[in-house]
Design brief:
The chain is 35% helix and 21% strand. With 456 residues, it is α+β, with helices and mostly antiparallel strands. Strands 1-2-6-3-7-17 form a six-stranded mixed sheet, with helices on both faces. A four-stranded antiparallel sheet has the order 11-13-9-14, with helices on one face. Strands 4-5-18 form a three-stranded antiparallel sheet. It starts with a helix and ends with a helix. Bound molecules: ligand BES and manganese (II) ion (MN).
């Protein structure tokens, strides 16, 4: 097997360009899951994956339709019963490309500049899908697979309410495995291989505040009719107190406090205030009193306003008293918070604080639980060694502030834990304009995956 490993590693070196070309092909399909007009592109991406998985030597490849976007499943179980089975995750959908005017190149025309490839979906997460494909391809082309491989690739990760949860519940036998490989997280820096052991959950809301039945003259009626934009901003500003804590009653009740040992470890991570200042280009940081930025984003829950709309926002002026205001608000949750309980808490807050002058409506979108993973399993150990082989460094262990909802679903329905790794960087501008992937890190990632599969 040492010889096979060597051959596979040589194979990836000789086929870097093929990996790059494959990534470009997949990225060129604008599979934006939230946009109904892109349903055809979503289908095309699923079809592209099917063909690719067939050429990787998968012996069974299926597209499972859902009421929304199809799930791609594939397997090659030729390693045999005495070898472990890994279920490799991916999502082929991407976030919308807007604001389009902020892109320097076309979001769906992958463009190489220096060491980076720019395009929507490059790092989140089509590049990571291709990294797993390239690693499996290299191993398959140079010999027998040392592990049984299953792929589960969905098209609904970036939108709330995915059908993947139901699919997993209904197909526990098909998806049975020894562990889950989730390449949808990232590395802290190009020379810092990273293992993510916690992901936050999310409760996402749309809040609509309705004032008068239609827009009105702000001079004639302002002062007599309560402005819904004002009501909205009053309500939103009441959601945090002076200490940066969320004011929803009961919000922190289920939060597992950070232990001293973990705080100590997190404080040693090479992720300091400077990192956040630099990434954001802001003058100062903000957050819950008594916690460091790493703790605030990983181990503490937060509440963000994701969007805010009311009245006239075009050029020039319009003296209008708007009919309604709308806000998108989401909470990132940590263990053991419950996203539906947070909905109840938000509703109770509105019942208590919204004035009688308006009506309001709160709808919940995402309701995903947070996850925590074992940091010492043999699968994690196999990745630690793989990362050491590829980067010459022991990986750091961190909590991630973002969410990958599937991890909890496989923990609950399949009873297996997840190895959360990936090759995206904080500077890759995930979800923002000019998203990119750092190519040297991508190639190293393929190498690490080859080592990982042999280490299992
Ligand atoms: N890959 C991200 C999650 C992530 C972000 C991992 C940053 C590591 C670093 C994932 O695709 C994502 O964006 N998830 C959404 C889920 C939501 C829409 C339910 C998120 O976190 O906003
Ligand atoms: Mn994402």
């Amino acid at each position: 097997m040492a010889d096979h490993r060597q051959k596979a590693l040589e194979f990836i070196q000789d086929h870097k360009n093929q990996s790059l070309e494959k990534m470009k092909e997949l990225i060129s399909i604008p599979s934006v899951s939230t946009d109904p007009e892109r349903a055809g592109d979503i289908k095309e991406a699923a079809e592209w994956l099917r063909k690719e998985l067939e050429s990787l030597g998968m012996t069974r490849v299926e597209i499972h339709p859902t009421p929304r976007h199809p799930i791609v499943y594939a397997e090659n179980l030729s390693a045999g019963k005495d070898r472990p089975t890994v279920l490799i995750y991916g999502h082929y959908d991407v976030q919308p490309e807007d604001p389009i005017e902020d892109w320097n190149t076309d979001p769906f025309t992958p463009t190489e500049k220096g060491e980076n490839l720019f395009a929507r979906g490059a790092t989140d997460m089509k590049g990571q899908i291709i990294a797993t494909f390239s690693a499996i391809d290299a191993i398959h082309q140079t010999g027998q697979l040392p592990v049984n491989v299953k792929f589960l690739i969905e098209g609904e990760e970036e939108i709330g309410g995915s059908y993947l949860e139901t699919f997993i519940k209904d197909n526990t036998e098909l998806l049975a495995c020894d562990f889950f490989l989730n390449p949808d997280t990232g590395m802290q820096a190009p020379d810092l291989p990273t293992i993510t052991y916690a992901l936050r959950g999310i409760a996402y809301f749309e809040l609509r505040v309705q004032g008068p039945k239609h827009d009105m003259h702000s001079g004639t009626f302002g002062g007599a009719i309560h402005n819904p934009a004002q009501v909205m901003t009053d309500l939103l500003s009441g959601l945090h107190d002076k200490k940066g804590r969320v004011t929803l009653k009961g919000f922190y009740d289920r939060v597992i406090p950070l232990g001293e040992e973990e705080r100590e470890e997190l404080s040693k991570l090479p992720i300091k205030e400077e990192f956040y200042l630099q990434q954001g280009g802001v003058k100062a940081l903000w957050g819950e009193e008594g916690y460091t930025p790493v703790e605030r984003t990983g181990a503490r829950p937060t509440l963000e306003i994701n969007g805010l709309y009311s009245g006239f926002i075009e050029e020039g002026q319009k003296t209008v008293l708007p009919a309604y205001a709308m806000a998108k608000v989401s909470c990132r949750l940590v263990a053991d918070q419950d996203p539906v309980e947070v909905y109840e808490q938000f509703k109770a807050y509105l019942e208590e604080n919204a004035p009688e002058t308006v009506t309001w409506e709160l709808t919940q979108m995402s309701k995903d639980f947070p996850s925590l993973s074992d940091r010492k399993s043999k699968w994690i150990e196999a990745y630690v060694k793989a990362a050491e082989a590829a980067w010459g460094k022991r990986p750091i262990f961190k909590r991630e502030g973002g969410s990958v909802p599937v991890v909890v679903h496989v923990q609950q329905s399949l009873g297996v834990d997840s190895v959360n790794i990936g090759f995206g960087l904080p500077s890759d501008n995930m979800h923002g304009p000019n998203e990119k992937i750092h190519l040297p890190t991508f190639y190293k990632g393929i190498e690490a995956l080859v080592h990982f599969f042999f280490n299992l």
